[in-house]
Design brief:
The protein has seven helices and seven strands, in the order ααααββαββαββαβ. By secondary structure, the chain is of the alpha/beta class.
Length: 191
C-alpha cells in the first residue's frame, strides 16, 4: 500500500477541528475563482479569524479554560469548542463582536471541558468524509466544494457558505448521512 497519501492526510488529523481549506490558499488560485464571495470579503474573513484567535489567546482565562475555533464567512462568525465556565461563553462572544467587520456571531461552544485530541482528530476525519461525499453525490453535479465550509466539533457539523437553498438542503442531507455525525447545523447565507 502506498503510504504517501496517508502521510499527506495526517496533518489534517493533527490539526484538530478543521474547516478544510482555510488560510492564504483561499485567496489564491481555484478557491478564489470559485468562491461566491469577492476577494475583499475573503481577506476580511481571514482577518477576522486571525484577529479573533490572537485576541482570545491573549486572554489567559479563555486560553487556559477553553478550546475554541473561530470561522468567519462573509462576516458571519461561528465560534465552536468547549469551556466549562458559563461566564466565558458570553465573554468570548463579546470579545469577538468587538472586532471590526463582524456582522453576526453564532456562538456554538458547548459548556463542557475541552475535547480530547482523539475527539478532535475524529472531527477532522468527519469533515474530510463530508467534503469527499459532496464531490461524489449525483445531486450536486459539478458542485465546487470550496463554496461550503465544513466545521466539525464534537461530531456536530456546521455548514457555512453562500448557497442556493436547494444546495444547502442537499449539503445538509449529505452531511447527516455520514457515520458518527450527531447533528448538522446550517449557518448558510442564501442567494
Amino acid at each position: 500500500m502506498n503510504k504517501i497519501p496517508l502521510l499527506l492526510f495526517i496533518p489534517l488529523l493533527i490539526n484538530g477541528c478543521t474547516t478544510m481549506g482555510v488560510g492564504t490558499a483561499e485567496v489564491t488560485g481555484i478557491a478564489l475563482f470559485h468562491d461566491r464571495r469577492n476577494a475583499q470579503s475573503i481577506l476580511t474573513d481571514e482577518k477576522i479569524e486571525n484577529d479573533a484567535m490572537i485576541t482570545l489567546n491573549l486572554d489567559s482565562d479563555i486560553r487556559s479554560n477553553s478550546h475554541f475555533n473561530v470561522t468567519s464567512y462573509n462576516g458571519i462568525v461561528l465560534i465552536t469548542g468547549e469551556t466549562p465556565i458559563q461566564a466565558l461563553l458570553s465573554h468570548i462572544s463579546e470579545t469577538i463582536q468587538a472586532l471590526n467587520d463582524v456582522r453576526l456571531i453564532q456562538n456554538q461552544m458547548l459548556l463542557a471541558y475541552p475535547s480530547s485530541f482523539s475527539t478532535r482528530a475524529n472531527d477532522s476525519l468527519i469533515t474530510a468524509k463530508i467534503k469527499i461525499a459532496f464531490t461524489s453525490d449525483p445531486r450536486l453535479p459539478g458542485f465546487d466544494t470550496t463554496r461550503i465550509k465544513v466545521v466539525t466539533e464534537n461530531s456536530r457539523v456546521f455548514l457555512m457558505g453562500l448557497v442556493y437553498p436547494k444546495e444547502g438542503d442537499i449539503a445538509a442531507e449529505i452531511a447527516r448521512q455520514q457515520p458518527e455525525v450527531q447533528e448538522v447545523i446550517k449557518v448558510f447565507e442564501y442567494i
